[in-house]
Amino acid sequence: MEVSFSSAFKRAFKKRIKGNIDLEAKFWQKLEQFTVDPFDPSLKTHKLSGKLQEFWSFSVDYDERVLFYFTEDGKAVFVDIGSHDEVY
Questions:
Q1: What InterPro entries does the record tag this protein with (predicted)?
Q2: Which CATH class is domain 3-82?
């Protein structure tokens, strides 16, 4: 699966994840899993509802989430990353 990062995602990644070596390593590992199978059970990928109903989310670790959507041509665009409270 092809993945792209929105400018908002890049800002959030730099602010919330970059510099935290452990969390950053987990993110890159989960990204690799995501590109192979976006619905791998370990990612806990799920569709959101309510005001975020056009988005999906997967877990990086216990509290960190990646918010994304699928494009019509089957790509994924990452929109936000952060703790459960920051993303939702």
A1: RelE/ParE_toxin_dom_sf (IPR035093), Toxin_YafQ-like (IPR004386)
A2: alpha beta
